[in-house]
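The material for today's practical consists of a large collection of protein records. There is nothing in a record beyond a sequence line and a structure line. Backbone structure tokens are a discrete shorthand for how the chain folds in space. Nothing more is needed to start thinking about how sequence determines fold. As an example, a complete record with its sequence and its structure tokens follows.
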Amino acid sequence: MDSGQISRGIKAGFGFLTTIPVRSGEEDFRILFNNVFIFTIVGALAGAILGFTGFILQAFFPPALVPILVVSAIILLTGINHIDGLSDTGDGIIASGTKEKKVAAMKDVHAGAGGILFIGMDLLFLFSAISLFAGYGGITLFMGLFIAEICAKASMITVAAFGKSLHPGMGSMLVAGTKKEHYVLGIIIAFAVSGAGMFLLPLLVSGPGLDMVRCLQFTVAGFLAVAVSVVAGLLMVDIAGNNFGGVNGDVLGAANEIGRIAAFLALGILIWMLW
């Protein structure tokens, strides 16, 4: 696979995973769905945009306003498709009865109590996590947003790699196109980039003077954030299998949201322990 194809896949990834208007054709999306490691690259680029946005917001707005503004920025950049998938998945999980009834509840266009609950908890935990990182000040919020978005995509491709397709659609296309070797490459990229970012964080915060032990501790924290997001994806596969009999686009969207929150909170707690 050459750099031109990767560029086309990244362009399709921005069209699929963000609200940034890009022109992508059917072949571009085929490249994206057949090379899921590109999801991790797009997550890193989107995370860098969000991280830079959060860093700038901290400089111009009071601390109390920064978390809600950053949450708004996340929604503006990534759209509401993933949140809608989380809502539909919540409706299906909360619904009682057979798997068929749960799938019917998930497909219902009206948000139910489960969907509203899942959206509310998602936004609450996201606000809390961003508040935690904003409280550290400086470049830390940038790094948290950067890594969390990578982890969100790691969780999503985990579902695509290990889930069984529920019915035809965009979700089934991604599941069918996911090759295990490309999934492993995507996770390796996530570990490498997250670990490198966290290795640099103490240096960026404290300035010159290399404390190797501290840098390595933060690197492990970056690795653990990715690991938590992968576990979140595997749990989503299990939950979806038990409730619906497989995964679809809604479950993939839910995995993106839950993976982001899981990684954000795990990383925030680890930084708090190490600071």
Q: What stands out?
A: The chain has a mean pLDDT of 92. DSSP finds twelve helices and no strands in the chain.
